[in-house]
Amino acid sequence: MEPNAFMYLTVAAVMFAIGVVGVLTRRNGIVVFMCVELMLNAVNLSLITFSKMHSVAAAAGGAAANVNPAAGSMMVFFVMCVAAAEAVVGLAIVISIFRNKLHIDINDVNIFKW
Amino acid sequence: MTFDSIFQIAFFWFFAILGIAGGIGLITQKNPVMAALSLILNFFSIAGLYLSLQAEFLAVIQILVYAGAIMVLFLFVIMLLNMQDEQNQQFDVMKGLAFLLGLGFFGELLFVFNSFMGKSVSGAFPLGKVEPIGMQMMTNYLFPFEMISVVLLAALIGAIIIAKKHSYK
Q1: B151 chain-A contacts, CB cut-off 8 A
Q2: Rounded to the nearest 10 degrees, how much is the dihedral formed by the CA atoms of B63, B67, B72, B74?
Q3: How far apart are CA A91 and CA A97, in angstroms?
Q4: Test mutation, A1, A4, A14, A18, chain B, max B CBs within 10 A
Q5: What confidence category does residue B38 fall into, taking pLDDT thresholds of 50, 70 and 90?
Q6: Model ipTM value
Q7: Taking the CB of the first residue and of the last residue of chain B, which one, N or C, has fewer CB atoms within 10 A?
Q8: Quick check: A104 and A28 in contact, CB under 8 A?
Q9: Would you say residue B166 has pLDDT above 90?
Q10: For the residues of B18-46, what is the DSSP string, one character each?
């Protein structure tokens, strides 16, 4: 069976669910950040799959002939840029927390808790 | 079944299984460095899946930006902070609950994606190459492209201000 859209989307869904479980269970702040990156990548994979799917359907003259086939690739590009910015700011916050508390156990970082 | 389609199937399953194995390694490894290396494995296999979808530009960007730049940043911070492995790794009620939540979320996603069963993704993809993406970026998406530079500049300045040592202490 040739790989179809559902198989790619299932792989993306598995990766996203793994990211969700990782964010909920891990206690190391940096690993939690890496799980967020994993979830962003899973969403990127599904965006490219949808883009390819609509592009193929438009080339075949289907109902999706008036979609913009560039939207998916552009979206993934901008998600990557924002993810890079997010990683930089997040790691700066992690370094700042480590400097104050000498650990980054996120169960113990609750200075905003009222 | 031709040789071409067998190769296509093998390519897909190889990178799909490798990527999921990398994700599982990320959440099960105690050592943060090993978790980061598992995530790099996952990023490479996602780049492989992009290639199989003929999105060549994004596959290259995935390896350069994610597996290259961002993960080097993560590894650099992990080794800079010299943290211990997580101690309490045994299975407790909250972790079981989180696992069930993730499983339920996965079921929901499959339920939604079920309507895309059998939709073909094999065929020409004119937007995978560098040239059409560059054309789109400089015409239709010029304003977001300029705004992303402002976002990156803001992240740069913000990271320096957050992470630097405050002199008033």
Answers
A1: 81-82, 85
A2: 140
A3: 10
A4: A18
A5: very high
A6: 0.89
A7: C
A8: yes
A9: no
A10: HHHHHHHHHHH-SSHHHHHHHHHHHHHHH
Q: Which chain B residues are Cβ-neighbours of A11 within 8 angstroms?
A: 16, 19-20, 49
Q: What is the pLDDT of residues B88-131, one digit of tens each?
A: 556 688 888 989 999 999 999 999 988 888 777 777 777 778 88
Domain ranges of chain A: 5-101
Beta carbons of A64 and A58 less than 8 angstroms apart: yes
Q: Is the pLDDT of residue A65 over 60?
A: no
Interface test with A, best of B127, B136, B137, B167 (most A CBs within 10 A): B127
Task: Inspect the interface and report whether the beta carbons of A78 and B144 lie closer than 8 Å.
Answer: yes
Q: What's the CATH number for A5-101?
A: 1.10.287.3510
Beta-carbon neighbour count of residue B67 at 10 Å? 18
Of the CATH numbers 1.10.10.10, 1.20.120.1200, 1.10.1740.10, 1.20.120.660, which one belongs to the domain with range B3-85+123-163? Answer: 1.20.120.1200
d(CA B37, CA B24): 12
